[in-house]
Amino acid sequence: MTDKPRQAKTYTPEFRESAVQLAIKSEKPVSVVAKELDVNVNTLHTWVSKYTRPAKEKQSKTRTDEHIYDEVKRLKKELARVTRERDLLKKATNNNILTAEHIEQIMQVFDNKANDDHFARSVDNDKIAENDYNLSVSSYVEAKDTREKIDIKKLNAGLKTTVEQIDQFRKEIDAIVAEIDGGAA
């Protein structure tokens, strides 16, 4: 048996570019992506460096630049992951969304141990035990009544005026109809 020299594999530019995109966008380490594509890991690292580096920067290969590009790649992956998680959480529920401002407000009330009408209340353990250890906020904090307040006197006065106007219009219509009927006869 004679050892045959290994021939270097050649890859098309399209394959290289798609391999780089896969390595950048995948959450998998570059070494795993390289193994899946049957490409040498160092080769794939070289391609990633080449394709992600701006054109004018390709000539200068400093160690600092490589770290920056690796960090950018890592941050892009992290951003993609967080975006997917955010989108998943938005799609998973039709409930209210807890924003950073809400969390800040909750933490302020908690830190101050304040009772805030329609928002928060400190409750003794005995009261919770009496309530079968139900920790539902609505069991201890009355919801704010957001219904529109209606002034009945003002509403009745408005209705009275409207009825009077309707009666006046009916009289005017009756007079016009009588005039038309009288003129036709």
Describe this structure in words.
The chain folds into 3 domains: 13-92, Orthogonal Bundle (Arc Repressor Mutant, subunit A); 100-139, no CATH class; 149-185. It is 62% helix and 0% strand. The chain contains 7 helices and no strands. It has helices at residues 13-25, 30-37, 41-52, 63-92, 100-112, 125-130, 152-184. Helix 1 crosses helix 3 (41-52). The N and C termini lie far apart (128 Å).
Alpha-carbon Rg, integer: 37 Å
Question: Order of helices and strands, N to C?
Answer: HHHHHHH
Distance linking N and C termini: 128 Å
> Structural class from helices and strands?
mainly alpha
SS strand fraction: under 5%
How does the overall form come out from the CA principal axes? elongated
The helix tally amounts to 7
CATH architecture of the largest domain: Orthogonal Bundle
Output mean pLDDT. 80
